[in-house]
Amino acid sequence: MFLQDRWYVAAWDHEVDRQPMARVICGEPVVLYRKFDRSIAALHDACPHRMLPLSMGLKEGDNLRCRYHGMLFDPDGAVLEMPIKGERPNQALCVRRYPVVERHRLIWVWIGDPARADDTLVPDFWPCSHPDWTFDGGYYPIACDYRLVIDNLMDLTHETYTHQGSIGQPELMEAAIETEVRGEEVFVTRWMPGVNAPPFWRDALKQDGPVDRWQICRFIAPSSILIDVGVAPVGAGATIEDHDQGVRGMVIDALTPESETTTHYFWGMARNFDIRDQGFTERFKAQQGRVFAEDVEVLEAQQRSIERNPGMKLRGFSIDAGGVRSRQVLARLIRAQQEEAQPVPPTPEPVPSPAHF
């Protein structure tokens, strides 16, 4: 159920330091650590000898020694020392190395064929690195299928009830939405003119009064979502195509499957207002964290309910179009992956026609 030959977020930049760190990505155990030059090594988290996790190992310079019998590996997974002193290193026992890219304050690991790793395929979270924006966020482990989180983020009508005290408002249920598929991406657009700003956005705008509000959700396969959100005072000239007149944010969501029913949720928001106010950044992050914690509570309860009700199926209404289209894109790509992996059957030899005498 996981798409291979893709980049997945393994950690925030501040999470990985010199000491080994373990994380399971798409069912694959990975150990990460920083080398002296601050670049990152990512290896399969199992010693090929007795399979003790290498994340329990001992760092020796940029190398990693298994804590069980002392096999020593370099950052590329090559064997430097065997358990028996003087025994020649057996390179058939090298550890798998994962390609890594550090970008937009996130650490991306390539899951799939290393020969196909292409850093131009890292999703473009441009606001996270733009000099006129600031960005911060956090991490939640969620006990649910990562596709449920995609459904949640591509259908923001749930804000009306799940996030009543912060970003939800009744107009979310009333405003028309447009859904469009562009290749491996899905867009859901909602424009709400002349509404009252909910508390979260009223405080960011620093004023009362009617506003124009927008939400543009963008799904990027396999599991990234950017949501362009904000409000502008009515009359400021904001449109769905051009909306830098008020306060604008870009919700950043990177969903990394851990297993079929658990997900690493890397969340944050980039914004183009009050970008040098570090205190506001911390308060803003805490506020956003509380909003996403409400999602976590709902999503984990939904996963438990799905498991308790095997005879029921999820239903899709018009408000679910973004999530449904995203799942269809994922299913198409995974199906193509499976077909590519199928061995080509040999062409049968032609059967000669019987001779006639």
Automatic annotation (TrEMBL):
Q: Name one GO molecular function term.
A: dioxygenase activity
What EC number(s) does the entry state? 1.14.13.-
Task: Name all Rieske domain ranges.
Answer: 7-109
Residue ranges for the region (Disordered) are: 337-357
Does the entry feature the keyword Ribosomal protein, yes or no?
A: no
Record field: compositional bias (Pro residues): 343-357
Task: Say which domain of life the source belongs to.
Answer: Bacteria
Q: Which residues form a coiled coil?
A: none
State the CDD domains in the record. Answer: RHO_alpha_C_DMO-like
Supply the alphabetized keyword list: 2Fe-2S, Dioxygenase, Iron, Iron-sulfur, Metal-binding, Oxidoreductase
Originating species: Sphingomonas kyungheensis
User: Per its UniProt record, what InterPro entries does this chain match?
Assistant: Cholesterol_7-desaturase, Rieske_2Fe-2S, Rieske_2Fe-2S_sf, VanA_C_cat
Q: What is this protein called?
A: Aromatic ring-hydroxylating dioxygenase subunit alpha
Keyword tRNA-binding annotated:
no
